[in-house]
Amino acid sequence: MARRRAKQPDTGPLAEVTKRDFVAIAQILCEERASTNLKERLAGYFRSQNPRFDTARFMRATNACRVQE
Length: 69
Description:
By secondary structure, this protein is mainly alpha-helical. The protein has helices at residues 19-31, 36-49, 55-62. The protein contains 3 helices and no strands.
């Protein structure tokens, strides 16, 4: 039986960024009406740092602001 290797801790620049952080970033981009180009560039960078980053979900979130009361 083959032994599994322990997963190495991620030490990249986004290692400490949580889902909550990405949600907040998307919210800010939406509220500030950021350009599509900026949103796509950020999504591309996030994806390059985290292969599990869901670009389509992020882009939808940047276009659907939740109203803060």
